[in-house]
Design a protein that fits this description.
Elements lengths: L2 H38 L4 H29 L5
Helix pairs in contact: 1-2
Amino acid sequence: MPLDQLQPLWDRAELLAAGVAAVVVASQVADHWVSSRARASGASRAQAKGLGRDAGMVTILVAVLVLAVAVALGWGVS
């Protein structure tokens, strides 16, 4: 199989890898930001950690949904 035939698959794999990396970073940022704000508002450490974890999970779910729509519509792949 010539390498030229694998190029569209490689392009999609690169797009997926970039998307997954962005999801991981966004989740960590949401977790840290919400935890920090909760602690500043007077929440206990355990409450802040729980809120941050929830925010991180919601971020992951939303980002995965957006990535799934992007892949289904073929965005970013020419």
